[in-house]
Specification:
single chain, about 350 residues, Aspartate Aminotransferase, domain 1, 2 domains, 11 strands, globular, aminotransferase
Length: about 350
Amino acid sequence: MFDINKILRSNIKNLTPYSSARDEFKGEASVYLDANENAYGSPLDTNYNRYPDPLQYAVKKRLSEIKGVPPRNIFLGNGSDEAIDILYRSFCNPGVDNVIIVPPTYGMYEVSANINDIELRRVPLTADYQLDLEAIAAHIDDKTKLIWICSPNNPTGNSMHREDIETLLANFSGLVIVDEAYINFSRQKSFIQELTEYANLVVLQTLSKAWGLAGLRVGMAFASEEIIEVMNKVKPPYNINEASQALALAALQNVDQINTWIKEILTERDKLVLQLKNLDFVLDIYPSDANFILVKTTDANGIYNYLVQNGIIVRNRNKVELCEGALRITIGTPEENAKLIETLKDYK
């Protein structure tokens, strides 16, 4: 049975969070003289002289309507990377605890573990890029606090078998974090629907991919109320700035536009796969539930450098475990994809 108090760091249990001026006062006032702001405004068309809502309630309320999750189960971070870091700082004791990652996977799980001095246990995916449950079980001990699972996975593009993730959730006493940065492009159901079933589940999503807001840096974590309370306790007081909150809220009114773009991206993905298969140096293209494809080639380094010389940037994954010889290619506009194919046709 999952018990948050058994995995929460003792210093975090006893932490008195920073209390901002906006935490201490709720509602509206006519005069604000509490936070040492510049009362004259900002040298911009829009005033940003007041501190933003520290808990981003308006954005969470709109997300709640879209996702079907109460605002109290939503955490907003400066990108998903902030949520990743806060989970380490909340639940993992430096130099004592360990976490499990399943490479190839998103690189920030490892970077953040190293920054926080947390032992990283690597359990590679199987040959078909699925979870190796027996190997994961063999690496778990009483100091294992987190298991990181990216699904759809970056850089391979595939979704993990749902029943395998459920097996971990049901049998692991720490947190299972399911990173769904690319879930909008997948036919798989989000694990958000399972929050009431598993107290140890954390789901990460982002506005950087399908929502086209990478420059705003707004990431989301969905979890039980007690986990979200811990994350809010640890985060900086104003971690999402006012401009990002306002722009994110405006973007979240345009669900139909996003759904149209998703359909177009998936159509372009299928077209690009067919065109790449006709190139002699393409050995394999792995199935994708994301807005990118992993392409195994005869010479990843050579092709990558050739594309750079022609002003086209893809991601060289040749040195990544189980991705030798592979390039990760994001699906672009029809014009960008056409330029990529025409350029590759001339590669020798």
